[in-house]
Every structure is written in structure tokens, then in C-alpha cells.
Amino acid sequence: MEKDSQLKILYFKTLSSTQLYLKEQLQSQKLTPPVAIVADRQTQGIGSRENEWTSQEGNLFLSFAIKRDKLVKDLPLESVSIYFSYLLKETLCEFGSKVFLKWPNDFYIGKKKIGGMITNMVADTLICGVGINLITAPEGFGSLDIIIGREVVIENYFKKLEKKVLWKQVFSKYKLEFANSKEFFTHSNGKRISLESSILESDGSLNINGERIYSRR
């Protein structure tokens, strides 16, 4: 996202899913990138592995689209989840949060997930969908450990994206906190895989017992 690009942010009271709405609007050419969609609540939010992300009003439900040719030049497409998730994690930490990024796109505080990001490349456009429990959380999940307004998060996150930080700079910082992911699991080809013995490769993939695993979302 470039500084001279005019990012349009549209706000809604209720949507089935910010991500699905954005995809539909892009496909019908009613909206063009760069554009972002924010909803107060979602009725059919999308989570990891096509699970539903439960809507709690007051939390962050955001999707945005960026043209592929506007991404930073050294960013591997298989690592867009880490890149955009880490920069959002960094934004929250700058306000005092202890949130960390579990590989590749889940936001955790301690042992509880507080949110996540889904990324999809549709033709020449990257679509990112974000859900974060800013205020409340369903049973089994956590919420953010600082008090911060939704608009403050969005404004500062997009300012950070405008700086077009190189992937190698993001990766150098993320690999330092990757150890936090090792007590968790990931999923690949329908299997639940421990991250305990995983090695983070320079393109953001994992090497687990000689097998390379890439983020698919």
C-alpha cells in the first residue's frame, strides 16, 4: 500500500462477513483496491480452516484488499499471512499489549487465542480478513489485554502498512518470537502437527522433521 494511494474504509453495522462482502464487491467491480471493510458485528465470520469466528459486538472485524503489485517487493506470497499479521501484532504491542503471533496468523495472549487473520489471493488482489477480541471473548478464547478503540487500531495499522516495511525486516523480528509458537500445534492436510521440533525457514515456511509446511490461509 503506497502513501499516495487513497484507501477507502467503509463501515457497516452488521454484515454476514466482511471478507465475503469485500470479495463480492470486488468481483462485481463496485469496489476497487485499496479498500477496507469494517463491521460492528458479523453473523457468519470466517475463522481458521473455514470455522466460524464468533461475533461479539465491540470487537474488531476488518477485511481489506491490496493489489499484488503494491506489496513489498521481497515478500514471498506464501508468507503474506505472517507479514500482515505480524505488523498488526506490532501495532498492538506499541500500545502496551503482550500479544504474540503464533505461526502463521493467530494472535495469542498467554495460552488463549484472541484473534486471527485469513489471507487469500484472488486473481491479482490480496484479501486479508481480521478478527480480534478487543473487548469480549466467547468461552475458551481470550481478549486483548489493553483498552484501545477499534478506530485507533485501524488507523495505526494502515499507517504502518504505508511504510512498506520489507519482509526481511519483519522476518528478522518474527523469528525471535517464534519460540512462543513451539508449545502449540498447526494443521496440515487435515492432520494436527506439533510445532515443538519445527524450524522456521527464511520464506516463512516450517521445516518439521524434514517436511516443509506452508501457510495456506
Q: Notable features of this structure?
A:
seven-stranded mixed β-sheet; BirA Bifunctional Protein, domain 2; three-stranded antiparallel β-sheet; 4 helices
SSE map:
Blueprint: E1 8-15, H1 18-27, E2 35-42, E3 60-67, H2 80-93, E4 100-102, E5 106-109, E6 112-122, E7 125-132, H3 150-162, H4 167-177, E8 185-188, E9 191-194, E10 199-200, E11 206-208, E12 211-213
Parallel strand pairs: 1-2
Antiparallel strand pairs: 2-3, 3-7, 4-5, 5-6, 6-7, 8-9, 10-11, 11-12
Helix pairs in contact: 2-3, 2-4
Tell me what you see in this structure:
This protein has 217 residues and is of the alpha+beta class. The protein has a single domain, classed as BirA Bifunctional Protein, domain 2 (2-Layer Sandwich), CATH 3.30.930.10. The protein is 22% helix and 30% strand. It has four helices and twelve strands. It has a seven-stranded mixed beta sheet, with helices on both faces. It has a three-stranded antiparallel beta sheet with strand order 10-11-12, with no helix packed on it. It has a two-stranded antiparallel ribbon with strand order 8-9. Helix 1 links the parallel strand 1 and strand 2. Helix 2 packs across helix 3 and helix 2 crosses helix 4. The longest helix has 14 residues. It is globular. The relative contact order is 0.17. The mean pLDDT is 91.
